[in-house]
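Re-run with default settings, no changes from the original entry. Doing this only to confirm the output is reproducible before filing.
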Amino acid sequence: MFAELFILFAVIVLVIVLYYLFKAAKYLIVNSILGLIILFAVNALFGLKIAYSWLNILICAIGGVIGAVIVILLNLFGGMF
């Protein structure tokens, strides 16, 4: 009896943990896609000529919108990227 209750409790905890992990993963995926879209749109609309290097794509994929803004600002003010 005790083993069944323990397994039931473990399954409930596992479901709750997986729910929050998938919820956070969804937010990260959407943020990454938005960052890449912003980088592409700014490059196409304003002609900044930001190279699509692995570093730029990685910064935008990990940082999302904030990463795209950082790459754009570094391009405008620092001449980097």
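The two ends are 63 Å apart (CA to CA). The chain has a mean pLDDT of 89.
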